[in-house]
Amino acid sequence: MLGSALMIGYSVTLPWQFAADLPDSSSADIFTPTGVLVGLPLLLAWTVALPLAGWSYYRRTRLPR
Fold this sequence. Notes:
By secondary structure, the chain is an all-alpha fold. The protein has two helices and no strands. The chain starts with a helix and ends with a helix. The model has no long low-confidence stretch (mean pLDDT 84).
């Protein structure tokens, strides 16, 4: 769960980091603005799905009381 919380915290800051770095971008950068605009929603979706999958796994594998 700690990993999920850290990933969510990091992912929430990415749109502001992208907006701040956009004026300084060039064609030599490894991540182009188009790549970021495609990859950022995918990362955010994965960030939401990760804790949900962990919770589901926990519920399926916990010992009965």
